[in-house]
């Protein structure tokens, strides 16, 4: 068998790059990883970049914004400064044409809550973002649901833009 007779099967996976953005202390780590999931019975390869700014003035870089297909903004409901961080990031992102999902973490710590559900919901609505509250340390499913919702928004965005961000060229 010669090398010309071997053909590589085209991958059926769609790829979605998500940057997780939030102030220090919201429940993130600085890592980059890939994960395959099914969204509406279609295999999707998530590439996740979990950013971790050094301080609250360290907003998302243009490099991160250009890399990502979608953004997951995370804040802690028990720390008002983390909410201020995502509000400030939102002002920057208002000029970016990219799907965004706002995720409030640590909602199980009701006795320490500093940011109400309504505040997060209103912020998300003002910027036309998706929104939910989770307790990431307690339950993984709501966090996964947020990623899935963001992924659906990214895939819909890919279908509606005139020139897709990534094109596949097949040579015959």
UniProtKB/TrEMBL annotation:
Keywords: Hydrolase. Transmembrane segments: none annotated. Pfam families: Ras (PF00071). It is an enzyme of class 3 (hydrolase). One of its GO terms (molecular function) is G protein activity. Gene3D superfamilies: P-loop containing nucleotide triphosphate hydrolases. It catalyses: GTP + H2O = GDP + phosphate + H(+). InterPro entries: P-loop_NTPase, Ras-related_GTPase, Small_GTPase. Its EC number is 3.6.5.2. Belongs to the small GTPase superfamily. Ras family. This is small monomeric GTPase.
